[in-house]
Amino acid sequence: MRGSDDVKAAAGTFEEFFRIEYPRLAKAILLVTGDASEAEDLVQEAMARVLERWERVQGMQFPAAYVYRVAVNLHRRRLRRRVREPIAPSEGGSPPDPADLAVSGDTVLRTLRSLSPDQRAALVLVEWLDLSPEQAGRVLGIKPASVRGRLHRARRTLQERLGGGNRD
């Protein structure tokens, strides 16, 4: 994980851990949820839960991965509760210009939201938090081969929808 040695060394107290990891985690969870306020709420709740268990968590090999998993699990629980709510239709109209797609953060977020939650989680863990497929598999509770499969499908979908892919 990018900078994990620095984080591990600096994360002697929860306050230090929070200061270092909160911004990264909030960005990662934003990619999973696609909603800034939802991501903020999930990360705050996850950090509060980690604070309650800090003595145990600080000794873990990857405390940031643990708090990420807590946030993702909270998100999944919320999604299960919302199953009965209707899904808002996507915006209609003509397809955007490919040049606009390359620079539009909103388009990227919408495209990330269109991935399955499992694909988004694998993508964020490996691409954003720099975990290996083995580490991501431990966080998600699945085999590394499953992580690689999810990554492959997520990357293919992103290439198809955002451009840059070779369409045969």
Write up what this structure looks like:
By secondary structure, the chain is mainly α. It has one domain (4-83, 97-162): PhyR, sigma-like (SL) domain (Butyryl-CoA Dehydrogenase, subunit A, domain 3, Up-down Bundle), CATH 1.20.140.160. It has helices at 4-10, 14-33, 36-52, 54-57, 63-81, 98-103, 105-114, 117-128, 133-140, 144-162. Helix 9 (133-140) packs across helix 10. The model is unreliable at 1-10, 84-90 and 98-104 (pLDDT under 50).
Quick gist of this model?
With 168 residues, the protein is mostly helical. Helix content is 73%, strand content 0%.
Topology:
Elements: H1 4-10, H2 14-33, H3 36-52, H4 54-57, H5 63-81, H6 98-103, H7 105-114, H8 117-128, H9 133-140, H10 144-162
Helix pairs in contact: 2-3, 2-5, 2-8, 3-5, 8-9, 8-10, 9-10
